[in-house]
């Protein structure tokens, strides 16, 4: 059935987001409709309003949400009404070469579901009946969302929704970079560059992995304070040193793992430079497509350094989302502390402003 829903929409690149009442159609084959309970506000949502992530407008934002299944389409067996689910902005077909070799974030069919559902159509209509695209095949910054089952992960009902939501992007990206991409070993020396929602999660991933040293690097003292609260053993304010990489190296003797959570060539170079011999730098930040990085080639063989990327924390969402929430339930990951502030959907524009001002670890829109 069709449902009216308040939703946060980008009507035009470069304009502030607006809250509209849209129509969300019921599920077709292999789709489910979810009553959204909570949706995190992520920098990538903002990037989609500027064209940095070039999803065409009009676009329903949101890709980091949790909610309850209220209607299932034909052929759906993995979900039933009442299930709690978290959205995955990467569609995982489960059948292609990448999926079957355990790399679902690289799913060969995911590109069909960037701003529409996998079949190229949408279930979201504006006031004039026009199609509204959906961020990452999700569009979950709305009271209801109809998604393909390949974009949904069932999770434990005991986890509060506003915490579960964050696993869909920030937590998975940061913790997964540490667990899955880098495979940080106990006793490692680590550094994290850029302390936003993802950087904080890289820090707590390093804590959970048993790192000995965790150096947080940023230019914002408030964020470095948050980094210490999430387990950073040392902090470096980039404005107070001549060279961030050299400062990290002086402190640690060179790290085993560095995480770049900014998405900028010069910061990638810093993360690579502060490695010790045999170290690995992981690029987590999403840069401008034209951005470039330069490294000293000889250090790859002679120091056995590695420079690698991590997309959504190299997640296997159906396995990793429940696993990460299990670590939260066991008291080994901070999710309550990650939610700095919650907002009513009518205040979504304020939530975006607060994010851009660096006020929140994570701001989350919660629904009635
Ligand atoms: Zn995100
Ligand atoms: Zn696939």
From TrEMBL:
SUPFAM superfamilies: GroES-like (SSF50129), NAD(P)-binding Rossmann-fold domains (SSF51735)
Record flagged with keyword Oxidoreductase: yes
Gene3D superfamilies, A to Z: Medium-chain alcohol dehydrogenases, catalytic domain, NAD(P)-binding Rossmann-like Domain
Keywords of the record: Metal-binding, NAD, Oxidoreductase, Zinc
Names of required cofactors: Zn(2+)
Enoyl reductase (ER) domain location: 14-367
Keyword Glycoprotein (UniProt): no
Protein name, as recorded: Zn-dependent alcohol dehydrogenase
């Amino acid at each position: 059935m069709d449902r009216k829903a308040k939703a946060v929409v980008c009507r035009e690149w470069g304009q502030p987001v607006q809250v509209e009442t849209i129509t969300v159609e019921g599920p077709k084959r292999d789709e489910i409709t979810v009553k959204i309970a909570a949706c995190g506000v992520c920098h990538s949502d903002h990037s989609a309003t500027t064209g940095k992530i070039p999803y065409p407008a009009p676009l329903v934002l949101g890709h980091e949400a949790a909610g309850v299944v209220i209607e299932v389409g034909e052929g759906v067996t993995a979900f039933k009404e009442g299930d709690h689910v978290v959205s995955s902005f990467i569609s995982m077909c489960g059948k292609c070469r990448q999926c079957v070799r355990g790399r679902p974030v690289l799913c060969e069919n995911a590109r069909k579901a960037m701003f529409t559902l996998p079949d190229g159509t949408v279930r979201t209509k504006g006031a004039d009946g026009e199609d509204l695209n959906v961020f990452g095949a999700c569009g979950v910054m709305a009271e209801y969302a109809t998604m393909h089952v390949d974009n949904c992960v069932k999770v434990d009902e005991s986890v509060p929704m506003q915490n579960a939501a964050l696993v869909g992007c920030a937590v998975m990206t940061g913790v997964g970079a540490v667990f899955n991409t880098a495979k940080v070993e106990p006793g490692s020396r680590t550094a994290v560059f850029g302390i936003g929602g993802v950087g904080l999660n890289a820090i707590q991933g390093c804590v959970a992995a048993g790192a000995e040293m965790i150096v947080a690097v940023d230019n914002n003292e408030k964020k470095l304070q948050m980094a210490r609260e999430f387990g950073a053993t040392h902090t470096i304010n980039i404005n107070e040193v001549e060279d961030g990489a050299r400062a990290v190296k002086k402190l640690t003797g060179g790290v085993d793992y560095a995480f770049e959570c900014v998405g900028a060539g010069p910061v990638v170079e810093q993360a690579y430079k502060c490695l010790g011999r045999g170290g690995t730098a992981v690029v987590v930040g999403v840069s401008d497509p034209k951005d470039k990085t330069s490294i000293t080639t000889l250090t790859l063989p002679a120091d056995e350094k590695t420079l690698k990327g991590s997309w959504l924390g190299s997640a296997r969402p159906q396995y990793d989302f429940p696993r990460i929430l299990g670590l939260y339930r066991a008291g080994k990951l901070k999710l309550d502390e990650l939610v700095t502030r919650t907002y009513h959907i009518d205040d979504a524009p304020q939530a975006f402003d607060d994010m851009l001002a660096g006020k929140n670890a994570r701001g989350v829109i919660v629904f009635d």
